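Entry:
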Amino acid sequence: MMRIKPISVLLKESTEDGENTLRRSLGPVNLILIGIGIIIGAGLFSLTGIAAGQHSGPAVTISFIIAAVGCTFAALCYAEFSAMIPVAGSAYTYSYATLGELFAWIIGWDLVLEYSVGAATVAISWSQYLTKFLSWFHLYLPPQLTLSPFETAKSAGGDVVHGIINLPAALIVVLITSIIIRGTKGSALINALIVTLKVGVVLVFIAVGWSYINPQNYHPYIPQNTGTWGEYGWSGVLRGAGLVFFVFIGFDAVSTAAQEAKNPQRNMPIGIIGSLVVCTILFILFAHVMTGMANYKEFIGSAAPVAIAIEKTHYPWLSKAVVLAILIGYTSVILVDLLGQSRVFFSMSKDGLLPKVFSEVHPRFRTPWKSNIVLCAFIALFAAFVPIRVVGEMTSIGTLLAFVMVCAGILILRKKQPDAIRPFRTPWVPLIPVLGILTCLAMMAFLPGDTWLRLFIWLVLGLAFYFFYGRKHSKLNAEVNNVNLTPETGADE
């Protein structure tokens, strides 16, 4: 269970030609846009106001800087691994090469939960925003077709209507899956267009809002602490950093596309670090403008802080633009979630830990199409028939656990294989990996108890599957057993 998969084997698999290999078609710009596509989501438009109103005040910009620094520790470790081991699978693959098969399985299984629950949750939210957006143009979708069977809504006449199926949520999953199946290059093009549109809305908000900044809203920049830890003052800035930290999470999805990147040794670090840098700049400017347009106290208890800021302008159409940006943002998040999940499944299946169907590549499009279809069916049904309160908000515990494993993997690999070829080297080792581990563990410690319970139950199911199927079908296990067979008797030594 603790056997590792040698880096030489991983590199050989990533370069060999065959019917089950992925096509390398992504350049550095594509990779940066994939990262931006999942990082910039609806969370930017909600968490920024919550952090400012309840914790940081105008100093939420400092919170963003602190959170970005915390993410950078993990990003630098990801960059080294992705350049060193340009194989699909992200943290799963890196753990297999450093910590062993059991840890790799745990991380891979956990990432599957995060990507699938995340995609289903975002699809349900996408449906809700679509309904709201269309209603502004007097286009009304029947609530029976936009809610799960366990949800109700009031009709215009005051009657209670029961949902039947959340059709838009299921259809967006199917639509995006069809795009992904047709090729990563095409998916990257669609993602690039989506990212351009939603970044454009963010830039418009910054440009328009800048002229409506009231300098008085920045005083005091760091409000005095109320006497409770985390309510303003420097403790509030730190609490705010913990909250907005989760806005940044998503750059790791870039590493799942390593096996489809052209010149991955050069382009993967650019994609991971580049997307983080671009988003950090945008987030700081966005937070600065929003807290300058309205006093931070106005954001307390508001689920739509951006709408409060927009009310200070003479451009009410910005509200519609923000909802459109959320719709667009959610679309790219679903795309990258589905793309990342299928690539993790692809790697686990190639290693024999999952059935072969998940690593079968389409003869024309060179994508794991059967895996895409299976995952599409599962997630679409989840999004269509399960209410969002059951699906739960897309939490970050799995990603943070992956961050911890990747940072630990850098420490282990530097110790065990100091002379291995590293096209990109994480600076200041062991300081950077250690800081990454401590930062991520601290963030995990503040997550709700039900999040830990969900993770525990899922991991128990995953371990059961591993011991009954994965361990027996592991290709690495088969290779070890073949080596241990004696030529004379054919029996295990």
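Residues 485-493 have pLDDT under 50 and may be disordered.
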